Amino acid sequence: MAGLKQEITFEVQQDLLAMLDDAAKRHNLPGRDKALRCILDYVAQDGDWDEIFSKIRCMRCGGRPGWTATP
Q1: If you compute the radius of gyration of the chain from its CA atoms, what whole number of angstroms results?
Q2: How many whole angstroms separate alpha carbon 37 and alpha carbon 43?
Q3: pLDDT band at 1, cuts 50/70/90?
Q4: CB atoms < 10 A from the CB of 32, how many?
Q5: Whole-structure pTM value
Q6: What dihedral angle (degrees, nearest 10) is formed by the CA atoms of 12, 16, 62, 50?
Q7: Local structure of 2: helix, strand or coil
Q8: Which of 11, 23, 65, 70 is deepest in the core (most CB within 10 A)?
Q9: What does the pLDDT read at residue 64?
Q10: What tens digit of pLDDT does each residue of 9-60 get?
Q11: Domain range list for the chain
């Protein structure tokens, strides 16, 4: 358990909760909190912030369902 953790509350769509749960299950993580911390660590260390934040990704526009699990 590296580093102090602070509990926070924020809003995400239901499909993103399912995505975090799926990531936790696939990678044998304790839960969605750890899955999100892994994603945030990746973004902080290896992510191209310009690519991440300048590209518009519209996963829910026009009736799209958002994230869906793949086998």
Answers
A1: 14
A2: 10
A3: low
A4: 19
A5: 0.81
A6: 80
A7: coil
A8: 23
A9: 80
A10: 999 999 999 999 999 999 999 999 999 999 999 999 999 999 999 988 888 8
A11: 14-51
